[in-house]
Amino acid sequence: MKKQQILLLLHVLFFLFMVALAAAAATDDDPQPLQVVMQVQQQQHSRWRMMVNTRSLLQAPPKIDCPSTCLVRCCNNWNNQMCNKMCNVCCSRCSCVPPGTGQDTRHLCPCYDTMVNPHTGKLKCP
């Protein structure tokens, strides 16, 4: 009896081993769990990059057309030539010119708003 039980047990273990081997072979075509996790992370990263502005804080701001923008800003100024000259200097450094012609919009371009003349200490940008 004991021999028959051992043989039966060996047959059952062999059968289970073969079933496990067949199951492992069937899943080889499927991506491994680590690969699936990496694919999901890459998809989430690409979605995140689409949602976030791609411009870094270290990159220079985009260039604007300074002459035409300053021409609009200085159109009502009593000293048009000086205004255009200083506005273009400020625009080339800041890549920003406040909209409109008045002083009430200066705060929209912080660089433009805070630039001062080193000799006089007065605001440099019109």
UniProtKB/TrEMBL annotation:
Determine if Transcription regulation is one of this entry's keywords. Answer: no
Please state the span of the N-terminal signal peptide per the UniProt entry. Answer: 1-24
Q: What is the superkingdom listed in this entry's lineage?
A: Eukaryota
* Keyword Signal on entry: yes
Ordered alphabetically, the record's keywords are: Signal
InterPro entries of this UniProt entry? GASA (IPR003854)
Q: Which family does it belong to?
A: Belongs to the GASA family.
Protein name (record): Snakin-2
